[in-house]
Amino acid sequence: MTRGPRWGAAVLAVALLAGGCTRDDDGPFHPGAADVGDPYVPGAGNGGYDVGHYALKVRYDPADDRLTGEAVLTVTATRALSRFQLDLAGLTVDRVRVDGAPAKHRRDGAELVITPPRGLPAGQRFAVEVTYGGVPEPLPSAELGDGGFHATGDGAIALGQPESASTWYPVNDHPSDKATYDIEVTVPDGLAALSNGVPKGTGSRGGWTTWRWSEASPMASYLSTLVIGDYRVATGTHGGKPIVTAVAAGLPADGPAAASVARTGEIADFLAGRFGPYPFDAYGGIVVADDRIRYALETQSRPVYGPGFFRGAGPNTDVVAHELAHQWFGDSVSVARWSDLWLNEGFATYAEWLWAEHDGRRTVERAFTDRYAVTDWSKPTVDPGRAAMFGDAVYQRGALAVHALRRAVGDDTFFRILRGWLAERRDGTATTADFVAHAERTAGKPLRPLFDAWLVGASAPALP
Ligand SMILES: [Zn+2]
């Protein structure tokens, strides 16, 4: 994510939802946990199962803001389950089936509690079909980026980090459970319906058009998006893969927004030269015109950019470089828990430095020296607390730590560390400890003291 120019400092009111789950006596089967225990997102995600695939069919009518959906989740029980939960904020559930059989269901706040007719043994794969609908709404934690579903008049934007997906489909809403997706979106003729991955065509019937998208690489739920409305959509290929960019029709056709996303392929190629092959089957970018979206988010294979980034005279390629760098750092290799968000943002910020140097503006050394001089070392990069998860310590101090590693091990080893990390962890999740261990293995020397000093030490570290 990149914070927009109008990002405000936020007063945080984390709703501390009741943690644990109620135990019941159900023989060998037990209820799945109500969340994954990530203190940055109380209530998010669930325990006891792993989702492998989401097949989503949603229909949205901007005339009355109503969404109807059918979600089929392919799930594997990771323990014997008597019941389990999905995250679903708002919306009304009409029907739930588990492996084709009607299942009991009830709502508990933003949780959908499902009790299948029979217990699900550990290791069993099963299909969950949820039919639902209603008027979707944003999530209340707007201070962390206006997450969730926004009606826009001509359409809608579903977007947000760390949570947003549960406002438009039932989901295990935490990056520790990545899954593949097929997404079908039906909207009135004339509107675009954009999402992640490879375009699988459109079809019209009775005044409605269905847009089909497929994301075949595992995706964290917060990286899924839905953008509906009046957009200028450009479709082509880049490096043998489809590239789909879209700019809201309300923005100028030849303005900075269009000029910036038009450089997506070029910037992705530059990053591939540093990080290794682009990790997904499609490229793209979407610029929305809604000022409530005060950030850009690295939604998988197709980042979404708020309009505030493109108010200058020329293109803003730095924000494009940042969101595209996340395709490697954050999307392909995702955080297992939000306290390690610097693994996404430190590297994406560093990628901005690399791009600016390549673009002939400011060297990486200069960026490093300038930032070092103004850094508040009292704020930690790892586990900064939820209120500071999008703060400078995560982004800028994180980038300083990345460059400190480069200075300590040299260019050759540094880029081997990055490429090896991305290749080994592709499509997975990881922690800070995983990265430090990988860097030490690749460099063949201890690096823990360096990372400790640059990531969490309370005073300015000595320059390596
Ligand atoms: Zn970012």
UniProtKB/TrEMBL annotation:
EC category name: hydrolase
Keyword Methyltransferase: no
EC number(s) from the headed UniProt entry: 3.4.11.2
GO BP field: proteolysis
One Gene Ontology term of the molecular function aspect: metallopeptidase activity
Cofactor: Zn(2+)
PANTHER family (alphabetical): AMINOPEPTIDASE N, PROTEASE M1 ZINC METALLOPROTEASE
Protein name: Aminopeptidase N
Organism: Micromonospora chaiyaphumensis
